[in-house]
Each structure stands twice: as structure tokens, then as C-alpha cells.
Amino acid sequence: MCGINGIAFSSGSKKQINKAMLAAMRDVILHRGPDDAGLFAAGNVGLGHRRLAIVDVAHGQQPMFNQDKSCVIVYNGEVYNHADYRAALEAKGCEFQTHCDTETILHLYEKYGAKCVDYLRGMFAFAVWDDRKKELFIARDRLGVKPLYYVHDADGNLFFASEIKAILETKAVTPELNYAALPDYLANHATCGDETLFANVKRLPAGHTLTWKDGAIRLEKFWDLQFEPKLNGAKRSDQDWTAEWFELFQKAVEMRLMADVPLGMFLSGGIDSSAIAAVMSKLVAEPIKTFSVAFAEREANEFEFARLVAAAFKTEHHEIIVSPEEFFAALPKLIWHEDEPLAHPSSVALNFVSQLASQHVKVVLTGEGSDETLAGYGRYAKTLLNLKYGETYHKFAPKSAREFVAERIENLPLDSKVRHKLRKSFFSIEPNIENIYFDNFAVFPRKMQSEMLSDETRARIGSHINPYAAMQGFFDSAETTNLLDRMLYADTKTYLHELLMKQDQMSMAASIESRVPFLDHKLMEFSARMPDNLKLRGKTTKFVLREAMRGILPDEILTRKKMGFPVPIGKWFRNEYKHLIDEFVLSERALSRGIFKADFIRNLVERHRKGENHDERLWALLNFEIWQRQFLENEK
User: 86, 96 in Cβ contact below 8 A?
Assistant: First the structure.
């Protein structure tokens, strides 16, 4: 795991690489690779690299050249099957100087060009300057586990890096708010697709390559998740499906144990991390090192479940409790690490447990990706039921009866949980995917955005504000008619991407590498094409995983309700930390920006303080304001 950066000037710009600028890009992301650093500069092209040494620690320095120095690579990630190709490449005349995966990727590029990515099983973002073709080839892994951002300016110059802050060092763009992406951020925790909150800064989409040649760029997709055709299950029992899935899962975990440095895992006590702990404990000789984080508040502390798993598999277990004071003190620095507002409060806790782990290991395995692969979120079942029964209700119930029911729901007490649930059901809203899925689970849904955005902001965005345009695009482009699969596909492209960026940036801030077995692409391809009821069976989520772990994990883990990672920010914002809302959300400085209607923001805060729950919304507004001060106004 490392940090990469680069610049390519078009011939028309008549610019040459400034090594000091290239080094400044590289060194602002020192945390991604404190072990070593390197530069390559040749005329109008330059590459930079920060190294976190994991495999072949003594060698593998980058930038790395092939034998005749016609190609040079900088690379961030881990390719777990790199050794599989060594003998074949040597037979083709490639001479290896190291045992690291970087060199294998470079030789694969030499032999297969852009098709080299098809051979790689793992997580990666890399760039190869091919002096023979005068081309810069950049690739990002299938699921986007590793980040890659770029600016392609009007003169054809390209600037890229693992983090946005590295690009900002070049002054290639002035840090400005991307108003067009604002509705997406407000609705979906973070921007979707290739947009960022910075105007003119884009991310290379997962599963894509970018080729630059003298100012022109070409993006190509090399992989996508396929749900059709479904695997033939006519003669397969649940046990058969489970056995095959579990075999792939075990292989995914085993491959991610490749390291020449100490290795451990994050253990929450949920079924995902617990399953990894169970498999991992059988594959290593020494007790595995596990790490957990929680808050002192009872509702935000899952240590009992993590301890249960740690005891079951005799791990060397470590814990850290984060106080509210530590949580908020760390927030500005972590927003700087993220480059954009923190989408989830759990990002802060993730950094604290990463700091803890960094005292013992250099690599951790984590449980990201299971929910989007195996329908682990409760919203999938809720959406399917709402759409199924809503169609019948709206077809046969007279309009007057529906209006009567909706009115009675609105008259229920404001703090009623029944009212909250029914207002999001087909009894209150038209049962379509925009209402039942996108709107229901948005931070700021469409109607609320129309009330909160100022006239000036609306004019900047355009006449038609659709915060779900990117998500809807993914939903519609899934090559399947199956509704559950389309939701999983959209979430894999959007919500999962943000979780992966959180995982990458919060762990790399502590200079440790995180690996995600559930996102092994072979495992994902199999899971996608399994029948629905192996993922979601009634209200039972992740059915195949639960079956695979039956008799292996404690029953308390198999049957516990999904909690996510609880952070009591709603309570904190009402009580001892409401001054932060005053300082950042309600301040004259924030309200005078004119992005939001001041009366709406004041009313939202007041309603939260009186007992309504707007914790996610206040979190988004707080982070957004701190981000603007840091990045757009250069406040230290």
C-alpha cells in the first residue's frame, strides 16, 4: 500500500517537469508511504511514489523500470496472485530483480499492454509511462478499493494522485466547490460516479483505465459486475451453494494473508469481521491480532460481541475507547486526510482503531463489502415489500381512502416510531424506486433540498436538481431486470465506494494497509450470480454467509441484529457538543455563504434540539463547513 502521483504535460503546453513540484505532490501524502520515496522525471512526464513496504521489504523501490528502461511504473495496492505469472513471464524473456508484485504488473504490461489488468486479482491503482508509445497508462482496480483522482486541464495536461490534496499542491486547479455535485453529496453521504466536491477534480471510476497521449485521454471499462445469467441451481441444495461460496471465501481470506510484515484484523463483533476471524485463525500458526474500538456510552459499545469472538478463536485482542473530546479534536485533521467531508461518524473511530493497530501490525483485514454483495442492509427487504404491496394498495384502494390514511399518519405524535415508519411506506408515498429507495434512505431527500438550497445555489446548479442522477444511472444500467440485483449494483457503485474510501484514507492516515476479502472479484462474481434467496431469504440477510458460519461462529453472533457502527452524535449535538453546531453550522460565517437558506438551517437545528433526530444531517453540515474552511479558504 502506497501513494502515487504524476504529471504529464502536452507538447502544446511547452512545459517541462519541475521536480520540486513533483516532490511536493508526493510528500504531502507521506502518511501513505513513510518507508521510502522516489521520483521519475523525463521531459514532460513525471511520476512520484511513497512506499509502505509490505512485500519484499528490502527491494521493490519505486518508480520501477523494466530491463531496457522503456517502461516505468508507480503502483499502490496488492496483487495477491502475482507469483502465479512469474514462471510464464520468465519463459517469455522477462528478468525479475525482485519478488514483489510491482515488477509482475510491469512485465504483464510489457507483454499484454492494457490487457494486463485482466490478470490481476487484488486491489490496485498504478500508472505506467510507456516511452515507446509516448503514452501514460493508468488503471484502477475492479471495485475501486484503491483511490485515484485526476485533473485534465484545457491544455491537455494531466495531474493525478492517490489523494486530492496532492493534486492541489500543483495549483492545477483553484479549490472551488463543485455546485453540480452538491445535491448528490447532501442526499447520499458523498458524491457518486466520477465527480468530487472539488470543481474539475475527478476520480477514475472503479474497473477503468485511463490512457493519456499528448494531451488526449481515453477512459475504458475493463470489468463490471454481472448478475446474469444466473448460475444453474436446479439441482443444487442450500448446502451445495453454501459449500462452494465458502470455498471461495476461504480462498479470498487466504490470499490476503500475503505479507512479509505483521498482520491482523479489525474485529467489530458483527458477522462479517467474525467470519474473517474464524477463517483466518485456521490459516495462521500464531494467534491472530484483533483490534476493536467503541465509545463509553452503552449504546455505542459492542465490545461484548468482539470479546466473544476473540475468546472463541483465541486471538490476541486489543481495544480502544474513544471519548467525545478525542472524537471532535480529531475531526479537522481527519477531514484533511479524507479530502472531502467525512461521510460517516464511524470514520473517526476507524482512524483511532487504525492508530491502535499500527502499534502492532502493518496490515489488517476488514469486513467491508459483504452487505452490498449479500444484501445485508435492512433497506433491501423494506424496499421490496413496499414496492410489492404498494403496487396492489395504489391499484385497488380509492384515492380518497389513501388520502384519509395518509392524513391520519401525519396526525400521529411527532416522536412516534410508528409515524416515522409509515411516512416512509406505501401508505404515505407513491411506491416507486425514487421514493421508496432513493428518497427514503437519503440524508437530505429531494423535497428537503428544495427547501434548504438558496435561490443562488439553485441557479448555479441548474433548473432541474436531481440528487439521484448518478445513482439512478447505475440502477438503470445494471444488466438485469431483477430488482434486488439492481439495488445491489447501484450500491456497489456508490455507497460501497464511499465506505472503501473511508477505509483507505482512515487506515492510511495511520500508515497501515487494509484488505477486504469480501471484495475478491472471483467471490463477488459468484455471489452476484447466485439465486436471490441465497442472499436475502425473507427478512434473513446474508443467508449464505450465515449458513456457511453455522457451527463455526457463536450463535449470539449469527443471530444478532445488524447495528452498523453506532456513534452517539445525536446526543452529543443536543448536549455537551451543541456549541460545535453553533460554531460551524449556525455561525454567521457559515450562514452568510448563501449556499443554504439560513431559516431552514436554524429550524433544523432547533427541531433536533427539541427531540427530533437529525443527527446525520447535522453531521453532514458540520463536516461540509469545516471542509470549506480547510480546503476552499486555506484555514489551518
Answer: yes
Paired strand residues for 219: 210
Domain 2-221 matches domain 238-375+491-559 at the CATH topology level: no
Picking from 153, 149, 176, the residue whose alpha carbon sits closest to that of residue 29 is 149
Q: Give me the amino acid identity at 28.
A: V
Please give the Cα distance from 24 to 3 (Å, whole number). Answer: 13
**Alpha helix (H) ranges present in 171-294?**
182-188, 238-255, 271-283
pLDDT in tens, 199-229: 999 999 999 999 999 999 999 999 999 999 9
The cell numbers describing 604, all together, are 433544523
| pLDDT over threshold 80, residue 414 | no
Cα 303 to Cα 11: distance, rounded to the nearest angstrom = 58
Strand order in the sheet with 363-365: 316-322, 289-295, 263-266, 363-365, 513-515
The model's pLDDT over 606-623, given as tens digits with 9 standing for 90+, comes to: 999 998 899 999 999 999
Region for 134 from its dihedrals, namely left if φ exceeds 0, alpha if ψ lies in -120 to 50, beta otherwise: left
Percent over 90 (pLDDT), the chain: 88
* N-terminal to C-terminal alpha carbon distance within the chain: 28
Q: What gap in Å lies between CA 154 and CA 176, rounded to an integer?
A: 17
What are the tens digits of pLDDT across the range 78-133?
999 999 999 999 999 888 998 999 999 999 999 999 999 999 999 999 999 999 99
pLDDT at 192 over 70: yes
Largest CA distance in the chain: 79
What pLDDT band is residue 1 in, cutting at 50, 70 and 90?
Answer: low
CATH of domain 238-375+491-559: 3.40.50.620
> Which listed residue (2, 71, 116, 192) is catalytic?
2
Alpha-carbon span 626 to 607, nearest angstrom: 22
CB 528 within 8 A of CB 224: no
CA distance 98 to 84: 15
Cβ atoms of residues 28 and 169 within 8 Å: yes
Q: Which residue has the cell 415508519?
A: 421
- Cell numbers of 599, please? 431559516
CA 108 to the chain's CA centroid:
28
Q: Please answer whether residues 78 and 1 qualify as being in contact, where contact means their C-beta atoms are separated by less than 8 angstroms.
A: yes
Amino acid sitting at position 350: L
Torsion, Cα 604 608 611 612, to 10 degrees, reads: 60
Q: What is the mean pLDDT of residues 346-351?
A: 96
Enter the CATH code of domain 2-221. Answer: 3.60.20.10
pLDDT reading at 587 higher than 70? yes
* Contacts of residue 612, Cβ cutoff 8 Å, sequence gap at least 6: 414, 415
CA atoms within 13 A on the CB side of 528: 25
CA distance 434 to 471: 10
pTM of the model: 0.95
Catalytic status, residue 2: yes
Paired strand residues for 318: 291
Q: What is d(CA 468, CA 187) in angstroms, rounded to the nearest whole number?
A: 8
Q: Under a CB-based contact definition with an 8 Å cutoff, are residues 345 and 325 in contact?
A: no
Could you state, in order of their start, the residue ranges of all structural domains in the chain? Answer: 2-221, 238-375+491-559, 443-464+568-636
3-state secondary structure of 40: strand
For residues 82 and 66, give the distance between their C-alpha atoms in angstroms, rounded to a whole number: 16
| Beta-carbon contacts of residue 182 (< 8 Å; ≥ 6 apart) | 197, 453, 457, 461, 595
